Structures are given as C-alpha cells and as structure tokens.
Amino acid sequence: MIYRLLKIELYKIFSRPRSYIGFVAIAVLIFIIQLALFVDGKTYLSFLTQQLDASFFLQGNILNGYLITYIILQTLIIQMPLMVALVCGDLISGEASSGTIRLLATKPISRADIITAKLLAGSCYTLLLVIWLGGVALLFGLMIFKPGDLMVLSSDHVSIIPAGECLWRFFVACLVAFISLSVVTTFSFMLSTFSDNSIVPIVATMAVIIIFTIIGTMDVPIFNNIKPFLFTTHMVVWQLLFQDPIDTVTVNKSLLILVAYCVGFMLVTYYRFLKKDILS
Amino acid sequence: MDKIVELNKISKNYDSFKAVDELSLEVQRGDVFGFLGPNGAGKSTSMRMMLSLIQPTQGSIKIFGKELSKNRNDIMRRIGCIIEKPDFYLYMSAEKNIDIFCRLSGVTAPKNKIHETLELVGLKGREKDKVKTYSHGMKQRLGIAQTLIHDPELIILDEPTTGLDPQGIIDIREMILRLKNEMGKTIILSSHILSEIELVANRMIIINKGKEIVQGEVATLLSTQHLVLTIEVEETSELSNVDSFGNKLVSRENGKLLFNVSREEIPAIVSQLNEMGIKIFSVSYRRALEEYFLKLTTENYHA
Fold it and tell me: Do the Cβ atoms of A107 and B104 come within 8 Å?
C-alpha cells in the first residue's frame, strides 16, 4: 500500500508547476554562475587567492570543474530550504486548503500510511533537488572547465583535494546535504499538519531558519551555549567533506544531531496527524 | 432488516461546546436516510464521525455491524462519500482524479469503467479536461462519480445540492433515486431543506444543537394527519365568539386563526366559520413537522 501511495504522492508533486520552480531556479543559477566564471573567472580567482599569492606559488588548472562545483554548492545550498519548504510545507496543508484531505482521509488507508507516503515523497523530492544541484553543477563544470585538483580555502587553512578524490567527496557531500535538508523537509512537513493554509508552514519554516542562522552567526556569548543545538549550525557540515583529513568526529556528531531533529519532527507529525480532527 | 449504520449515543465536545450530544440512529440496508437540521445543528460533525474524520468524545459507531474504531479500513472500503463539497486536484483531469481516488480505495479501475462512471454522471466528453475548468455543478457530478467508482454499499452525501442551480438540484435528486432504485445503494443524505429530504428519503432524523428532535419514517413524520392550519379572517367582534373547536384552535391573533387538525377536518372548520359569518381571506396549511422545522430554522437564523 505504501508503494502505491508513494507513487500517487509523487505524481501529485510532479503534476504541479510549483514543484519545478526549484529545478528551474537551480539550472538558471548554475548557468549564470558558470557563464560569469567562464567569462571572468580569472579575476574572481585572483580575488580569492590574493592573500595566498604572497606566500605560495599557485600553478595548474585551479579554476577547474570541481572548484566551480564547490563554489556553486556553497552558494546555492543555502537557498535550498526555501525550495524544499515550498513543496514539503504544502503536502498536508495544501490538501487541507483545497479540501482533498477529506477525501483522502475517508479512504481505506490508515493515517500513518498517508503520513509515511507523503514524507517519503517529500524526501524523494528533496533528494532529487540535491542530485539535480550537484549533478548539473558537476556535469557542466567538468564539461566547460575540465577536471583538476580542488583547492578549498577556509578561514585558517587551505586544503588541496586531488582530482581523483573529488568525485566521491562530492557524492558523500550531496548525501550529507540531503540529510541536512531532510531537517527542513520534516520541519516544514510537521508545520504543514498544524495549518490549513500552505503559506503558513512555508513562511514559518523560513522564519525559523533565518532566526537560527542569525543566532548562529552572531558572536554573542549568551548564544554560544545554544548554537551547537541549532540545526542550522550543522547544515553546513557537508563542507567538512572537503577538508584533508576529514574531521569525521564532527561530521558524525552533526549528522547525529540532524537525524535527531528529523526523528523528533516526524514523531510530532505522526502524533498530530493521527489525533487530528479533520474539520477543513 | 439489515442494519448498515448504528450510532449509539455519540457525542462530540469542543471544550464546553457540545457539537453533537448523545445522538443515536439506525440506518437499514436500502434506506435513503435523511439527516435534517438547520445550519450548525451538528449534521456534518455527525457524518464526519461516521467517516472517522472526527473522533467522537463518547459513544460508539457501528457500520456494517462492525465497530468503526476497530475496523476502519474494512468499513471505509465499502463507503463512498462527499463531505460538504466535492474537492479535487484542480490541476489534474477528471479521469486522473477518479483514477487516483479509486486506487486509494484499493481498487484499480480500468479506463473504460472510469469513462462509464463519468458518463453515468453526465460528464462524457469532459474526461480529459482539468477539474479547474469545471463548474460547481460539474464538480458535484464528479464527486458522485468518485463515490461510485469503487462500487460502495453505503453512500454518504453531506448537503450535495448546496450551491447548485435548480436543474443541478433536480439532476442530483434523480441520481440519488437511481442509486437507490436501480443500484440498491444505501444512502445517508444531509440537508437543511425539509422538502429536499422528503422528495428522496424514506427515513429521516431531525437534529438541532446536536440533539435528536425526531426520527422515523418520512411518510409517518410528514403525514397529513398532523397539520397546522392557518385561516386568515376579517378582524371583527364575532371572532370572540369563535370557540376552541374542541381544543383544535391553538391561537388567534392579528386576524389569523391557527388550528392543529388533520386534513379531513379542514372543510368542516371552514364551513363552521362561514356559518358564523366570518369572512375568510385565505386558508393554508403546513404539516406539523414542517411548521416546527421552519420555526427551528428561523430561531437558529436569528440566534
């Protein structure tokens, strides 16, 4: 039954034009970034490496497909929560506002199955979005800029990732990014069971992410105690996959916190929907 | 007779507000059961409880002889319903909507069956059109198609004629009668219009403020044995000589005499008033239940 429901839910998601906004936006942004870097990438690169030039001699194809993909991921992945919330925040509330939830909930399917299928469909959508972002960026990056060693600059060090290691690191980074975005999926989905209007969960999801991000970036001592527990703090953990060596302890700890958030949001969602009187 | 639905003292409370208050009813196989009450009487809440959309605060619901809370999916497989208004995925075609709801009911209907059902409700030729292009009446017909596609034994229709034009109302009424007479379906139908229920239902319940007012055979409840007769007369001094007609006269004010009578007694009362020389301007009657329901509706409207 779950498989049948999942197919129906995926059909519903991909029958709606709004579901393609994210894919189109990503494709357009990737095109714009790659075009800009193709035309004026050298200036951008010299800006990035200006502090290194005094101490190091940089040689080779630095502005390569892997670096372009990394730059794109870093730039676009923070926009992904909106795209995810746009679809996942609508999964229950959209049915409530359109009234179809009444029909759905009078069919011989348990409410737990409805929630499970919708959650899986939302997760599939999120995964496809991440694959699309990583895949398109990497494909066109490699086609246009060719492969090469990836140089990753952070505030206190430089990592050089050999070209041969880049592909698997991007693959794992996308998986980690998917887990990070799953927090947004489950959070917006949970909010969706509390509202009969899809705008509310979408806006509320974004509001919480913005608030958490602001708290996370402000260097105020009182916030330092809560920062490690905010999911937004751990959503950038995919970047650690591009350090050498990888700080697996931090990565695992972050993943554990993100998964805990997902489980927590899912439990609230199930409890809420199973007990809910459908009045819409 | 085979009991299809049994509600046993079901209640639904929202904090201190009692939307449904110890309501009991029985629907037999083959009934068209009318659920009547003014707006806000608790009809939709009761129907939603029968469909497990709302959990009762107390009481039990048996459908097809099984406890709803324990056999929900088995029961729902045998029910088709429209609650309030038929809502669909507007961005999909009628055909796809029916296909989806059919699959959700655990049945895979071949395309020709979907087309046959859409034809039955008068939507032939519009199967491929997106539902967003449909009128309210067409959506209502599509709603009926959705209830029928998995061949349910029990059909629950919550105010199915709301918002329809006169022809749409007639079409839905005829369809309900066809479902009962030709397809042998059991139907529960809610409305706040008594005449609508009278035209299609064989049994009914009237509820108000969540409580049962009366329940029984439509023919008995709406018989012409209990009428409220209104005779509009000239206000003269002779009116004071009008006796109580053996306690049949219940009120006299503003030139109107109100009697509780049977249909057969009307000519005698009119003749007697004539003999007394009282000028009669009009004679009209309503069945007692009709009069009561009108009063109930008016009270609720002004409340």
Answer: yes
